[in-house]
């Protein structure tokens, strides 16, 4: 199968720089899979799992990916993510506690609008992390 050059960057720096045969992730319009020869494409990234398939492995490398953009050109596929974490770096217990805290704030009638919106964002982030860990165990 053909491969393409993939770079994944986040505010923390270079996350991945190498050849891939496929990358799949959630955009704001739904799940997309990019293969070699894909047409030029730009879209915003949603919250979900990013799977990087390299030539070296049948199994993908999995990561939690939230926000940013995906740009596909002839020379490069670039993912500039707001948040990106390989599954092996996700602390499941910490994510579960973050989920519980966010749900508690959301269900409270005492939270102001700003706190409520922040809790909703944190809940999406925690749920994304937990789902990526669970998917890696399948």
Protein model, in words:
The protein is of the alpha+beta class and 138 residues long. The chain has 2 domains: 4-88, ATP Synthase, domain 1, CATH 2.60.15.10; 90-136, Single alpha-helices involved in coiled-coils or other helix-helix interfaces (Up-down Bundle), CATH 1.20.5. The chain has 2 helices and 8 strands, in the order ββββββββαα. The two termini are 25 Å apart.
Category from helices, strands and their pairing = alpha+beta
What CATH calls the topology of the largest domain is ATP Synthase, domain 1
Helix content: 25-40%
Largest sheet: 8 strands, mixed
Task: Give the CATH superfamily of the largest domain.
Answer: F0F1 ATP synthase delta/epsilon subunit, N-terminal
How many beta strands in the DSSP annotation? 8
Q: From the 3D coordinates, which CATH architecture of the largest domain would you assign?
A: Sandwich
H/E element string? EEEEEEEEHH
Count of structural domains: 2
Which CATH class of the largest domain? Mainly Beta
Give the overall shape: elongated
Low-pLDDT ranges: none
Query: What distance separates the N and C termini?
Result: 25 Å
What proportion strand? Answer: 35-45%
Number of helices: 2
Radius of gyration: 16 Å
Mean pLDDT: 95
TL;DR of this structure?
With 138 residues, this protein is α+β, with helices and mostly antiparallel strands.
